[in-house]
Design goal:
Length: about 300
């Protein structure tokens, strides 16, 4: 076993810590992770542990969400500068201007947003429950931020029954995919099912065989019997599927599907964060209370039906 892996595991036990790894992380991180998955899932799993410390191998908004759900735990981000390009496309002042342009309309924020943004919104959502949340909010129109493509995908899924006015944010990694990439992949691998994330361009989603969150894409592979799959989301998902399903063949739609910010967290970074207990995530009480109200509204909506979060 890798000596560094052994050291991290020993430190985890000594400090009663859990390590969370998002699916976009370098696959080596899984060796020391207690949980691997989507960001909200990870925060919820950590909340239910008796750990004193959370090491979140992800980006800053994810670590903030973990802190919101587990305020009594020390939350560390191995690389403090590991931000999310999409989340950083909107700040509180820009959000207030967006809301002022569309008064009296509920604001729905994607979980891929900072705690400060969540604190100014009415309800949160994930990529897997966004349709559910917007549908059951009971509004004819909603503001959706920061991802315009997820918002417009939701509007399309609801058949235009709810007007979704979106902020002009996006994920640079997913927007590297173009419709012509789908067409080229179809020609190269005609038997392969193309699985895309709703952060992709709308035309890409229209051409894919399946559109869903990271977890939904992975579940689709697990629950279907096709032999070939083309992954149209961040490379970390492809890496894990290729590792876990040896009897199936996987193609990465484009080799540029890499989020560099997500790849910053290494085993060395996790070790140093644990050893020094550095890069702690802190939130002020007012922001935390309002951001948790936004998240709890999502839990309230999704608990009333079977789609979950």
């Amino acid at each position: 076993m890798n000596t560094l892996v052994e050291k991290i595991k020993a430190l985890k036990e000594e400090k009663n810590a859990v390590v969370l790894a998002h699916c976009y992380q370098n696959i080596e991180v899984d060796q020391v992770a207690d949980f691997v998955g989507d960001s909200l899932y990870l925060s919820r799993m950590a909340k239910d542990t008796n750990a004193d410390m959370i090491i979140f191998a992800g980006v800053s908004f994810m670590a903030e969400t973990a802190k919101l759900l587990s305020p009594e735990k020390k939350v560390l981000l191995p690389r403090l500068e590991s931000g999310c390009f999409m989340a950083d496309m909107i700040n509180v002042e820009q959000l207030k201007q967006f809301k002022a342009m569309h008064p009296n309309i509920p604001a729905v924020c994607y979980v891929n947003s900072t705690a400060a943004i969540k604190a100014e919104c009415d309800v949160c959502c994930t990529s897997s429950n966004a349709v559910n949340v917007v549908k059951n909010l009971g509004a004819n129109e909603v503001l959706f931020l920061p991802d315009t493509y997820l918002g417009k995908w939701v509007e399309a899924k609801l058949g235009g029954k709810v007007k979704v006015t979106t902020y002009n944010g996006f994920c640079p990694t997913h927007l590297r995919l173009r419709p012509e990439d789908i067409e080229a992949s179809r020609n190269a691998h005609p038997k392969s099912k193309i699985l895309a994330h709703p952060e992709c361009h709308g035309k890409v989603c229209e051409l894919a065989d399946f559109v869903g969150s990271t977890k939904e894409i992975m579940d689709y592979v697990q629950n279907t019997s096709f032999k070939e799959y083309t992954i149209a989301t961040e490379k970390g998902v492809y890496d894990r599927l290729k590792r876990d399903y040896k009897d199936k063949t996987f193609y990465l739609l484009k080799d540029t599907l890499v989020c560099q910010n997500m790849k910053w967290n290494s085993l060395d970074d996790i070790y140093n964060a644990l050893l020094r207990e550095e890069h702690e995530i802190t939130l002020d009480e007012s922001t935390s209370e309002r951001a948790m109200a936004c998240i709890n509204k999502m839990f309230e909506i999704t608990s009333k039906n079977t789609l979950g979060v």
